[in-house]
């Protein structure tokens, strides 16, 4: 399930309306619920119908047995009457009368028992009061026996007894003469209620149905609900064909009697063209089913409501989710764009900073080369000039040497004269001056060359070109001195230099970087002062009290920095110099370098009085990581 | 040690070695040379002597070469004025130089022969102008 979830999310995000599949699932669920309910109900119905039919069949069997027994009893009585009548033909039936009077024959079930003679006239009745002659020749139960009746006894429709004056069912049996001609008909009249009472003893529901009919539907007895229909004039029941051909069976019909749909079971009465029929209204039989169905429908309805509510809330949730998802996606996209832009800006800033840092380096280089050129210029100038003069001196020396008389060849006046002419030449060529000046010339020239040499050395010390970013132990006093020599011209005519360097231990540092800081501070100090008002540039160094740090102060008597500008001087690109004069990175880079050395760069300034920068550096580095210096310096710049 | 038509040159620079090299070279070229280590000293010498030319360094403490030569132009216009300039010193576009009305710039490091010919040329020109 959890595994499926992302796929589902994926699926959702791919579809424009994510609720569509959910609605589909909901509809499918609804259909499934209802199909299940109706199938289940149908199954119940089938089972209940089967049970109902089973019940009806059992009842039909019971009814049939009951009828069978009753008819059998009647037949037994009729057979006794037949026996006696066929044997004696006695009109007065003394024996039969005796049977009845003495209650030998139980006639409890019967309204009347009697004999109809061959003419159809009532000849005998067990009832005491007989009112004259009764003609029954038109009665069906007589007429069927005029010819031989195949079923033995005949069971009639209910008729209003002409003697008993009661509705009764006549059970008759033919009695024959020895020649086979009709001698009479034995009759036993049943109270139809005897049959219908059966119905009352069983529960077939409010619209229950029991009937005894002939094969063609002629009604013998009929009970519908609580009402017994004992009426010979009732129309024939409409029965399916199977009822006249099968010994027993079931069917469903709403045609049989009263257009009420019922389940029926029927069973043939043995040896008689009669069937018993038991029916139960479908609506009564299916009461249970109806209640089941109602329960199912209620269940399904609840389920449907639940599904619909669930689906609706899910759809709402999903829509919300989709909306939030969309918003999130938008926000995410926006964030990416913003991030990209920020990255771009950062990249641009970094690139710009790097470029400006580079130009700061170039500016420093320019400053350096200007300083070097300036410092070298004077010595080179007089060295070159002196050399040129020296050439003339040499020429003078050569001339005088060549004019020198050879004493071994000359003598006397000639020698004197020659010496005189040499003296004249010497005077003319200013030999005395040359002779006196050649040594100062040489020493001054040498001094100039040494000066150049010193500057080259200072430059080397300053830049440490051999190990630009290498951490090493160095004495910062030397760095300060070298730097001062290189940028000497910057302050030479503006300020008096007061140098108070205390002896310091070597510290772990990147010397070229620190020299860059000193250069920055000295040049800044120089630039804050003017030639008009000669100031003082004081550079001091010292050791902290706990011997853990060294410090360098660069103090000027220049213009000073206002308090509001003082907070900005370490910001990159902040400058008060004219465009092209400074990058605005000098102090920022210096600050980065000092921070990288684990030190501090402090400043105190009073407008119009001067500024003092103090560099504090640890003697021992806690984390010396030379290869990251340049990037760290940049990071400091950016931060 | 007299020199025919010897001109008197005043060299001004705060760097003694420059002064000495200029002095010995000009001396060997037949000039009479005086030197001053700054504007102050130069002005004192100018008060008491007459110089044909002043060769003065641009960058000096207290008073710059351009200023000094401006003074010279005002007070001793007869004296020729040359300015020695270093690596990063201002060029002829500097307004203060207009006042000085220079005979020429001499860039450090200079070439002795070239300096001499320019100096000589200027002196000759001035001599011709005075002649007519």
What is the topology?
The complex is a heterodimer of chains A (639) and B (132).
Chain A: H1 4-14, H2 19-88, H3 94-101, E1 110-117, E2 122-125, H4 140-143, E3 153-160, E4 167-176, E5 182-190, H5 192-201, E6 209-214, E7 219-224, E8 227-228, H6 242-245, E9 248-253, E10 262-268, E11 274-281, H7 282-285, H8 287-403, H9 412-428, H10 431-463, E12 472-474, H11 476-486, H12 488-491, E13 495-501, E14 507-509, H13 511-527, E15 535-543, E16 549-555, H14 563-566, H15 586-596, E17 600-606, E18 610-618, H16 629-638
Parallel strand pairs in A: 13-15
Antiparallel strand pairs in A: 1-2, 1-5, 3-4, 4-5, 6-7, 6-11, 7-8, 9-10, 10-11, 12-14, 15-16, 16-18, 17-18
Chain B: E1 8-12, H1 16-28, E2 32-36, H2 39-48, E3 53-57, H3 65-75, E4 80-85, H4 96-100, E5 104-107, H5 112-131
Parallel strand pairs in B: 1-2, 1-3, 3-4, 4-5
How does this structure look, described?
The complex is a heterodimer of chains A (639) and B (132). In chain A, helix 8 runs antiparallel to helix 9, helix 10 crosses helix 11 (476-486) and helix 13 runs antiparallel to helix 15 (586-596). Chain A has helices spanning 4-14, 19-88, 94-101, 140-143, 192-201, 242-245, 282-285, 287-403, 412-428, 431-463, 476-486, 488-491, 511-527, 563-566, 586-596, 629-638; strands spanning 110-117, 122-125, 153-160, 167-176, 182-190, 209-214, 219-224, 227-228, 248-253, 262-268, 274-281, 472-474, 495-501, 507-509, 535-543, 549-555, 600-606, 610-618. A 6-stranded antiparallel β-sheet of chain A has the order 8-7-6-11-10-9. Chain A contains 16 helices and 18 strands. The radius of gyration of chain A is 73 Å and the shape is rod-shaped. Chain A folds into 3 domains: 14-285, PAS domain (Beta-Lactamase, 2-Layer Sandwich); 332-463; 467-638, Histidine kinase-like ATPase, C-terminal domain (Heat Shock Protein 90), CATH 3.30.565. The longest helix of chain A has 117 residues, at 287-403. Helix content of chain A is 52%, strand content 19%. Chain A is an alpha+beta fold and 639 residues long. Chain B has 132 residues and is of the alpha/beta class. Chain B has a single domain (8-131), classed as Response regulator (Rossmann fold). Chain B is built from 5 helices and 5 strands. Chain B has helices at residues 16-28, 39-48, 65-75, 96-100, 112-131; strands at residues 8-12, 32-36, 53-57, 80-85, 104-107. A 5-stranded parallel β-sheet of chain B has the order 2-1-3-4-5, with helices on both faces. The longest helix of chain B is centred in the last third of the chain and has 20 residues, at 112-131. The model of chain B has no long low-confidence stretch (mean pLDDT 86). Chains A and B meet through helix 8 and helix 10 of A and helix 1 of B.
